[in-house]
Amino acid sequence: MxxxxxxxxxxxxxxxxxxxxxxxxHGFSATSTMWAGQIAAFKPHYRIIxxxxxxxxxxxxxxxxxxxxxxxxxxxxxxxxxxxxxxxAVIGGHSLGGFMSLAFxxxxxxxxxxxxxxxxxxxxxxxxxxxxxxxxxxxQARAFARKGLAAxxxxxxxxxxxxxxxxxxxxxxxxxxxxxxxxxxxxxxxxTVPALVLVGEKDRGYLAxxxxxxxxxxxGRKALIADAGHAANIHQPAAFNHAMGxxxxxxx
Length: 252
Fold this sequence. Notes:
Blueprint: E1 3-6, E2 9-16, E3 21-25, H1 36-42, E4 47-51, H2 70-83, E5 89-94, H3 96-107, E6 112-118, H4 127-147, H5 156-160, H6 167-177, H7 183-187, E7 195-200, H8 204-216, E8 220-225, H9 232-235, H10 237-250
Parallel strand pairs: 3-4, 3-5, 5-6, 6-7, 7-8
Antiparallel strand pairs: 1-2, 2-4
Helix pairs in contact: 2-3, 4-6
């Protein structure tokens, strides 16, 4: 299996198909296996690069909390593209992976052909709202410390993959899922590439975020997937793939 290395830790990625490159990032406590339906559908025409974030799936879970950061994750994404010989790609992700895709664009806009933001949000302008979010992420970290992998959620995207240990998820909740500023949400009006903003109609926690991002990103294009929740690509794979395919086709 191919890996990159950071701080002595191995980070897993895979490549499927041939054609224009797409980098897909999973959500928190999920793994790259959540993209199986999209890999099967799009690999005949696209080069799909998927990966496991530090502390997730086949990637290592080092006992160094300082390695689990947004900036470190973004640099992992860039290093994976480098390892694949890719200068520029469509950058897409689910939930935390969508947030990291926005963070990647902020740091490496020249490497982004387009964005695909699935059931995700851009963070918070309000310090109070951000603090409330971080209370939740700390509760998740403590649950992993107390219960181990039994604390992994029961939603479909989380159950598809397996993790080696709960340690990486504990550190990841504190260092990757928690937020410290408004850099990402403030960057939305400055995104100059096309962006697909997709959300399941039953994913009530992210409906307002989808509308906000569509309104703020100059070329933001919303797709609402009927009868789907947070894991829209798993709940309604045909509708999800149709929306994704239409967007990719529009890029020329």
